[in-house]
Request: fold
Amino acid sequence: MERSISLVFLSFLLFFNGFFFFQVHASETIPRPNGKVRFKLIHRHSPELGEDPGTTLGPPSSPRERIKQLVHSDSARLHTISQRLAPRRKNFEVKVLGKSNLVELPMRSAADIGAGQYFVSFRVGSPPKKFIMITDTGSSLTWLKCKYECNNCSRDRAMLHERIFQAKKSPTFKPIPCSSDICKVDLSECFSLARCAMPTAPCAYDYRYADGTRVVGIFGNDTVKVRLRGGQKIKVTDVMVGCSETIRGNFHDIDGVLGLGFNQHSFAVKVARKFGHKFSYCLVDHLSPSSLVNFLVFGEVAASPVPKMQYTELILGILNPYYAVNVSGISINGKMLDIPSNAWDINGDGGVIMDSGSSLTYLVKPVFDQVIAAFQAPLSRFKKLDLNLGPDHCFSDAEFEQSLMPKLAIHFADGAKLEPPLKSYVIDAEDGVKCLGFASTFWPGTSVIGNIMQQNHLWQFDLLNSKLGFAPSSCTFD
Reply:
């Protein structure tokens, strides 16, 4: 029996280091209760981005440039994370009420500004218009380049052939009043402004990123189109979007940000309510051919393709808008490293977050030092290279054999264990060069499990039950 649905935008972008593009198309009905929405994620270095009119994204000029770009955007993202978590662990409640269906979205990775590595093609408004958006699990605001009241602000962008959302031409776009509690209270974490010239004036925001990029605009709700797994389209109504009229900084090659962080008004949280309170993503090797697709799914992913799913606690509401996990240790070849427990204490000075927007995995210094020490013996077989690429430890891969490298595992407090493939922590930097996929970050502070470490796994975020499921996956099942 078909049922009508409505969805509200949710922020899912982790940070501006790794970008995915997101594509949504929609009609009005879901054909069955177990439906799901699937988005295709596009990596920042995907040739597909360079082919899209209005962007200059795509493959870098060389393998060395590729790793430099990833690390550069990681640095901006880490800075943003540390700034946001400085006044740490501000608790808030996100309700996860709703009905169970399933929405799937394809994902891929793209360019950097400290926001994320993956992009989606996103359709919003009436009639729907296509925009290329960064997905960010570390951001709660969904916004796009837009014109509402400003008469001259979009002229230069139009001359550059940038896509601009004409909000007043969309009859379904409804500004949020500045006098509302949503503006004054709920959206304060999305940098809503206190000014309110009259009660009916739109709620304004001034959103600033760590690299100096700044977007100023107004909040509103509009309709989005998304495609169900079987190809049928549905309308997603009352999606919260930011209409950004003033943009200063590095958003030259993209149209906006799709926020997927944990926040009451983020795209991820609100859409997940409609589809079983769950969303998942699966990332293939970032060096894989473009025929292999990353994806983002809202709804239940069938258990049959992933029989070895493990579950661990998903810690919500402490390191908002990030998704935190309870790590208890790291082992090398089955031996636990001597890492102080306070490095993992999310209620103290430590903790770990999952970040699809960061490429490398960043470990606070007490953890990083132990991990690197465990690799010293096997790395001594190879010539160390000082290439100023970003990763701290790079070496010649002459006579390299996988069997010479130790096996790493990340252990969670409730017994789950992530055993990534070797290529997720010994990465190809360029021809003849490999690097450890770890970098050191400040202590006290938060460690970050980046998207290269997450590759070749399905990750399921269960917001209702505060569980994170994961399992090895080729990301090829429907």
